[in-house]
Amino acid sequence: MNEGIVYILTNPAMKGLVKIGMTTREMVDIRMAELYSTGVPVPFECSFAGRVADVKAVERAFHIAFGPYRINPNREFFEIEDTQAVELLKLMCIEDVSPSVKTELNKVDEVSRDSGQRMKQKRPNHNFEEMGIPVRSVLHSNYNHETCEVVDAKKVNFRGKVMSLTRATREMLELEYSVQPSPYWVYEGKILKDIYDETYGTVE
């Protein structure tokens, strides 16, 4: 058996995704520094971290439990609620080490922490009805030539499937994590982000 630490992370820039990471290193700060690379806009936040007796066994358990929700077989990102992973990990860990992992994550610079907090400020999810975009309206991508059709206040038909605009945008961009969709779509010549900001206001 190989003892180690399993950590469950979320990121304000990766809405709807959870990262389940594992390390056998005692120096968790090294791993946390690697995670907050130049390719990640704001720092990760730790939902829970636990020391386990057998990292490989825990890894297998998570893959079996959440495999169908894994975004990319080469990445440890899952489209689940973090509470689902936390409850499973609590059953298998021998020690809660969340405070130490959170401490390491908080060592990032103040500007980065502030950026993450701004992203977490809650504004409403976009609602096509509230934004004055009726059902059957066609949204045009400003990334490529694709379109989607509004089917209700929250969903669109993209590539023949009904889904959220967030998911449609992720599939269009071929990303393994979610991004804010509104900058990538246009309605009647106007970028959706501008319509959203006019409807709900902007973050100061």
Gist?
The protein has two domains: 117 residues, no CATH class; 63 residues, no CATH class. The chain is built from seven helices and eleven strands.
Question: Top keywords for this entry?
Answer:
single chain; 204 residues; 5-stranded antiparallel sheet; 6-stranded antiparallel sheet; alpha+beta
Measured between the Cα atoms of the first and last residue, the distance is 50 Å
Which value, in Å, is the CA radius of gyration?
19 Å
Percentage of residues in strands: 15-25%
What sort of overall outline do the alpha carbons produce when their principal axes are compared?
A: elongated
Mean pLDDT: 81
* Low-pLDDT segments: none
- The quaternary structure here is single chain
Strand order of the largest sheet: 9-8-7-6-10-11
Number of domains in the coordinates?
2
How is the biggest beta sheet arranged? 6 strands, antiparallel
What series of H and E elements makes up the topology? EEHEHEHEHHEEEEHEEH
Overall strand count: 11
Residues in helix, %? 25-40%
Number of helices: 7
Structural class: alpha+beta
Protein described:
It is a single chain. The protein has seven helices and eleven strands. Helix 1 (28-35) crosses helix 4. The mean pLDDT is 81. Strand 6 (138-141) and strand 7 form a beta hairpin. It is α+β, with helices and mostly antiparallel strands and 204 residues long. It has a six-stranded antiparallel sheet with strand order 9-8-7-6-10-11. The chain has a five-stranded antiparallel sheet with strand order 4-2-1-3-5. The termini are far apart. It is elongated.
